[in-house]
Amino acid sequence: MLAAGAGEAFAxxxxxDRAPELSGLRDAAGKAVSLxxxxxxxxxxxxxxxxxxxxxxxxxxxxxxxxxxxxxKVAFIAVNIDSDKAKGQRFMHGLGIGHMRAAxxxxxxxxxxxxxxxxxxxxxxxxxxIVREIHKxxxxxxxxxxxxxxSSLL
Length: 154
Hints:
The structure is a single chain. By secondary structure, the chain is α/β, with parallel strands linked by helices. It is 29% helix and 19% strand. The protein has a five-stranded mixed sheet with strand order 3-2-1-4-5. β1 (42-48), α1 (53-68) and β2 (74-80) form a beta-alpha-beta unit. The longest helix is centred in the middle third of the chain and has 16 residues, at 53-68.
């Protein structure tokens, strides 16, 4: 199942909400990561960490999916929530992530706002900044459902 079931609500961001800005997040080069700068694109944001076993499987698969969307209509952001940014960077680098933008949240600002119900959790945000789907956890094949959601929003 791709999204929260009927009547299921999350404490943080829910389907249909305006996606909050990713306040305080920086990429490996120290540049700010902003949803506002991506308005007009479908944005796929996933939250994960080095200690999350399913994240280790999900991130390379999402990176391969991101490679399919090279025309600039879709942006993928992998938010690493490790408290030690260097550890998060080693984790992301070790997975060979090259098509997603890695962002780091060692102070847990974005993770407190979004309050993902599991690690990993994917938020698919439409072109106008509204959360259209939430997918918690990872199982092999989930990328097919994510791709269908992305296609429906393009």
